[in-house]
Request: fold
Amino acid sequence: MSAGFPYRLIATDLDGTLLRSDESISRRTRDALAAATAGGAAHIVVTGRAVPWTRHILDDLGYDGLAVCGQGAQVYDAGTHRLLTSVTLDRQLAGVALAKLEAEVGPLYLAASRDGLDGEVLVGPGYAVTGNLPATPFTDAADLWSAPLNKVYIQHPTLGDDELADVARRVAGGFVTVAMAGAGIVELLPLGLSKATGLSLAARRLGLKAADTIAFGDMPNDIPMFAWAAHGVAMANAHEELRAVADEVTASNEEDGIATVLERLLP
Reply:
């Protein structure tokens, strides 16, 4: 353990956790992270966003470490703008999963994240993108499967996120991993993939372990990361499923919840 800070690794989710609702990071939180890293800790961003939707935030933060993107699929070196590892979705299995799911609940609205540093997010008819992130519309379903993907996003005309995720796990859980990452964000991922998978790979590159790690998050997709880390901190705005498995609950992302905990742990 470092004498300056009790954990050697700080893992933070982005949306609803490190970022405020306007996608900014407060000065207080920046200062607390800087003090913790000066005290010997490494900071790894662990986000459901793929690299193209994450890079601008990391650049703004002056972040040059490793980031785990795409729900664990990508380990990205922000300092050199290089993709170190990337796991892609088996498109045949994903197609089977979608067919089974649509047989159960009817037609879905679809989007997908293409693999790579500049992979586009393809958005089909009816799919509502949260925020104003760049996306490419498609109308022909064949376009969705024409290049390697990290994930497929699904929405339903009437089912809520939790309900859709539950049905997807029951019907398609043998083919894909299902993650609920935020409002309107239910994802189909490579089987067995989670934020914990990507975080463990990134940590190993730094010579760090689960026992060294404090993790911050707000959504059910952060549950595997909390299970892996020594200490899991849920934000006040967190989904009830994550709060139930957290070691502690801090203030919300709008009220410097991360800084509140880091400042307490700093000497």
In short: The chain has a mean pLDDT of 94.
